[in-house]
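> forwarded from #structure-qc
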């Protein structure tokens, strides 16, 4: 899936991500964050 630039974003970054804690229910965590419009999710182990 290619990532795109956000319209109206004035920062140097073209992507928007979020860091979250690793969970036993990662599919739900990923679905929730994906529906929020984030391009990537970082979940440190």
């Amino acid at each position: 899936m290619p990532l795109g630039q956000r319209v109206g974003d004035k920062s140097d970054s073209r992507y928007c991500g979020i860091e979250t804690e690793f969970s036993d229910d990662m599919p739900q965590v990923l679905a929730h964050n994906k529906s929020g419009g984030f391009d990537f999710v970082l979940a440190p182990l």
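QC bot note: The chain has one domain: 14-45. The chain has a mean pLDDT of 77.
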